[in-house]
Amino acid sequence: MSKRAISALTIAAAISIPTTMISLTTSAQAQSFSCSNAQLPSEMAICNSESLLVKDEQVASLLASKLVTATASGKMQDVSQEHGDWMKLRNACFNDFECLEDVYDKRILSLTGRDL
Hints:
Distance between the termini: 36 Å
Structural class: mainly alpha
Low-confidence stretches: 1-28
């Protein structure tokens, strides 16, 4: 397992993010969950859309970076709460692709520090 993968798992454990949210693969990027374990309508929709899979990988990567920064600055709980709130929004989209695209686009902008 790569150092990045170990760091992501360590950070997830430290803030009580289920490791199912950070599915690690051998590629440079990783989805935030495993499609083989997808149960929620939003997860199934994401797994059936290449563009949503790419965006999910972006969010997972950006979140991992933000978690490293949050660990150093003592803001882990804030980041964890923020991401939990976002997950509720994502899951409220159910299988609505347009809603999921919009929620992911806004999360990516938020994680990169860009305004809408």
